[in-house]
Amino acid sequence: MSWYDKYLDIYEIPYKDISDSKKQEVKKALETKRSVSQPLVSVVAIAHNEEKHILPCLWSLGDSKCDFPIEIIVVSNASTDMTNDILEYLDVQWYNEEKKSPGFARQCGLDHAKGKYYICIDSDTIYPPDYIATHVHYLQKKNVVCTYGLWSFIPSDKYPKFKLFFYELLRDFYLGLQNIKRPEACVRGMVLAFNTELARKVGFRTNIIRGEDGMMAFGLKQYGKLLFLKKRRIKPVTSTSILDGEKGIMGNLFLRMTKILRDRTGLFTSISDYKDREDNLIKK
Questions:
Q1: Residue 110: inside a domain
Q2: Are the CB atoms for 280 and 211 separated by under 8 Å?
Q3: Residue 198 lies in a domain
Q4: What is the structure's pLDDT at 256?
Q5: Which of 4-18, 30-44, 159-173 has the highest mean pLDDT?
Q6: 261 Cβ partners below 8 Å, 6+ apart?
Q7: Strand partners, 122
Q8: Would you give the end-to-end CA distance of the chain in angstroms?
Q9: Number of domain units in the chain
Q10: Which CATH number belongs to the domain containing residue 198 in this structure?
Q11: Which of 1-5, 68-72, 245-249 has the highest average model confidence (pLDDT)?
Q12: pLDDT tens digits along 53-88
């Protein structure tokens, strides 16, 4: 039995089809993470039309094992489904960011965060109980300004465990190599944490479609160390929808292998500046 099995009961399920008892269970789990005046950590989830995912995500955060005060904030990024209704029902602290992009949503969370440390959360992702505490443990180490980690996919008939195992093994090997000289390129927003005060000096990029997470880490490098956490017990699980958009799992495996061979020399050189791609810029 996997640690996340109980959350799958309501994952990918329309809100109207979830029982009142399950909704109440999620609400109760979040009660201890509400109305904290002086949190050590701000846990900030961004959500755009995440009606089918936001409940299990927040449920997992409510079950987090922390011996320090945290606040949970949700930023609804121009949602048009029942995401906002769910947040109202749960009585969580949430904000509506009408400017649509992960950069705007994450910056909104950063503007409202009260914690010394900031944990980035994606609302289609489920987090293990030791996730927050482990990231904070390492953020409190001398000279560490940012932590980031690995993630797994939720198995399905289309993507069974054994196929995902080999895909993630190759992906993690590639990220390990890339991390030697280009740690910021390994960063994904669903598994990112940092020092809030320093992050405010950097700010999230709001004029790009994707990559705001890696650029935040890149900006934080000037203040200290970026630390890659590879512990299996803190790997969250997320939807396989990204694999559907990238030619399925076999196509992804082929792309990963090709990338390793193509980038085998460049992987071991650092980059001092990243040029924006025209197709990644948000048009005004």
A1: yes
A2: yes
A3: yes
A4: 62
A5: 4-18
A6: none
A7: 46
A8: 48
A9: 1
A10: 3.90.550.10
A11: 68-72
A12: 999 999 999 999 999 999 999 999 999 999 999 999
Cα–Cα distance, 273 to 218 (Å, whole number)? 9
Supply the pTM of this predicted model.
0.93
Task: Report how far residue 93's alpha carbon sits from residue 220's, in angstroms, rounded to the nearest whole number.
Answer: 27
**Does residue 224 form part of some domain?**
yes
Q: Could you list the beta-strand ranges (E) of 41-191.
A: 41-47, 70-77, 93-97, 117-122, 125-126, 144-149, 152-153
The Cβ of residue 84 has, within 10 Å, a number of other Cβ atoms equal to 17
Tell me the three state secondary structure of residue 185: helix
Whether residue 280 contacts residue 206, with contact meaning beta carbons closer than 8 Å, is answered with no
Name the pairing type of β-strands 192-195 and 144-149. Answer: antiparallel
Q: 3-class DSSP state for residue 49?
A: coil
CA distances from 32 to 29, 58, 66, 93, 173 (A): 7, 13, 11, 13, 38
Q: Which tokens go with 252?
A: 């992804």
Helix axes 20-30, 54-62, angle to 10 degrees: 40
Residue 245 lies in a domain: no
Letter for the amino acid at 125? T
CA distance linking residue 53 with residue 153, whole number of Å: 14
Rounded Cα gap, residues 225 and 254, in angstroms: 32
Residue 101 lies in domain: 5-153+183-239
**Whole-number pLDDT of residue 33:** 78
Q: Are 37 and 223 in contact (CB under 8 A)?
A: no
